[in-house]
Amino acid sequence: MTEREKQDIPKSSNLPNPLKAEVIGIQDGDTIELKFIFDGKKAGFRQGKPVRIRFLHINSPERGKPFYKIAKQYTSERCFRKIVTIKHTGEFDRYGRLLGEVILPNGSVLNKELVKKGLAIHFKKYSNSIEYANLEIDAQKKKLGIWSIQ
């Protein structure tokens, strides 16, 4: 990213909630990068860089695992170069990523869509959401995505 491009990105030490910004990068199925620079301390080593969002409640397959590319592609098709809304509690993970739910322009929640399609699991280690648990059970029963190879 050039200095010129960085100057075009909104920058703030305050984190709006909800945060609305354009998606400028897709790391994988459950991590995206926004056209918004947060320079608050909570961002850790990502301070002063475009905000990365780690999808709350879910975990999608890692690189090299079955359905990794499909989950990443699904996320990309839904939100790349679009303005999304991030609902969050201001919590960051140890990698400086803001934890949140991604609301797409059509109002649907991308985190939930990924679980519904079997492209992510309910991340029970960090979430006790009954809704996400039920979405996962439903996808398992239907043998969708990652549940098709069990």
TrEMBL record:
User: What InterPro entries does the entry give?
Assistant: SNase_OB-fold_sf, Staphylococal_nuclease_OB-fold
| Keywords, in A-Z order | Endonuclease, Hydrolase, Nuclease
Molecular function per GO = endonuclease activity; hydrolase activity
Q: Which domain of life is it from?
A: Bacteria
TNase-like domain: residues covered: 17-149
Please state what the protein is called.
Nuclease
What PANTHER family has UniProt attached to this entry? Answer: EBNA2 BINDING PROTEIN P100, SERINE_THREONINE-PROTEIN KINASE 31
Asked if the keyword Hydrolase belongs to this entry, the reply reads: yes
Q: Which Pfam families match?
A: SNase
Q: What does UniProt give as the signal peptide span?
A: none
